[in-house]
Amino acid sequence: MLSERGHEASALNVHDQLESFTLEEYDSVVVGASIHVGKHQGEVRDFVTDNQDALSEMPTAFFQVSLSSANEEKREEAAGYVESFLTETEWHPDRIGQFGGALRFSEYGFLKRLMMKRIANDLLTEERKPTGDLEFTDWDAVDAFAADVAAFVEDRLGVVPDTTEDPAA
């Protein structure tokens, strides 16, 4: 989405970042985390806490991926995970998104596959019991969130998106 609007964008895994990593070269940051057994990844929490000063000085967004977000009856639970994360980290992102995730049974080992099938059985109706990988992500909602974040950042930084086509492309 950002690249399509003429911006340079990087996707980084906080698990792979060195302790010497800084956010100084970035104009904006979008942090994403998934929920596993009711918690966000510790590395993501540490990243936000360790970079609190830099994050407070720039436009930011946070998105959470959780199976609970895909289930109408569990959305409030998913929102509680976001609230807990933001309270723990004392972070106040400008934009927040919540999205359903996916169950990639084909990528899980035996025990994780068994555990995730049990979770899926609690979330799914009888006619939709897991027989293979399942996708719960509303990609239109993801695109809308990305467009909203991009427009917010452009407005905040006073940047006009470059939507001209590259003649060499």
UniProtKB/TrEMBL annotation:
Signal peptide per UniProt: none
Gene Ontology MF terms in the entry: FMN binding; menaquinone-dependent protoporphyrinogen oxidase activity
Annotated ranges, domain Flavodoxin: 7-122
SUPFAM superfamilies on file: Flavoproteins
Entries under InterPro entries matching the protein: Flavodoxin_dom, Flavoprotein-like_sf, Protoporphyrinogen_IX_DH
GO biological process, any: heme biosynthetic process
Name of the protein this chain belongs to: Protoporphyrinogen oxidase
Organism: Haloferax sulfurifontis ATCC BAA-897
Taxonomic classification: Archaea, Methanobacteriati, Methanobacteriota, Stenosarchaea group, Halobacteria
